[in-house]
Amino acid sequence: IFVIGDTAAMKDARGRPVPGIAPAAKQAGAFAARAILARIKGRDFPGPFRYRHFGNLATIGRRAAVVDFGWLRLRGNPAWWLWGIAHVFFLIGFRNRIAVALDWFWSYLTFQKGSRLITGGGAEE
To answer: Do 48 and 73 sit in the same domain of this protein?
Structure first.
């Protein structure tokens, strides 16, 4: 049984927890695919899962973000552009990239607010 995704709890080859983020889920998915194919073809298991952290990107507002690759740290408008470009680049399929880029552009021009997550109940609780 293989469990993958950004909500799967797992540890890397050194026993450290793998973060529940999309890049880790993509790496785990590729690893699971290699392991399943190896088993189907009767080959050796590909070894322990090794997570590679490529850095952190976070948007914190309109034209404001932070980027930390270890060797490069940015904030503000340049980080915001890099965040957007990176997220569109890693989408699957040209059509998805165009759709998301146009949606973000329209939201930017019209000052539309992003989705809001409500995590608590009402005052009755």
So the answer is: no
Cα–Cα distance measured from residue 60 to residue 108, given in angstroms and rounded to the nearest whole number: 14
Shared domain check, 69 and 45? no
Domain extent, residue 89, equals 56-110
The string of pLDDT tens digits covering residues 32-87 is 999 999 999 999 988 888 899 999 999 988 889 999 999 999 999 999 999 999 99
Q: Please, are residues 91 and 100 in contact by the beta-carbon 8 Å criterion?
A: yes
The model's pTM is: 0.68
Task: State the CB neighbour count (10 A cutoff) for residue 67.
Answer: 20
- Rounded distance between C-alpha atoms, residue 105 and residue 102, angstroms: 5
How many domains does the structure of the chain reveal?
2
Q: Tell me, yes or no, whether 24 and 63 share the same domain.
A: no
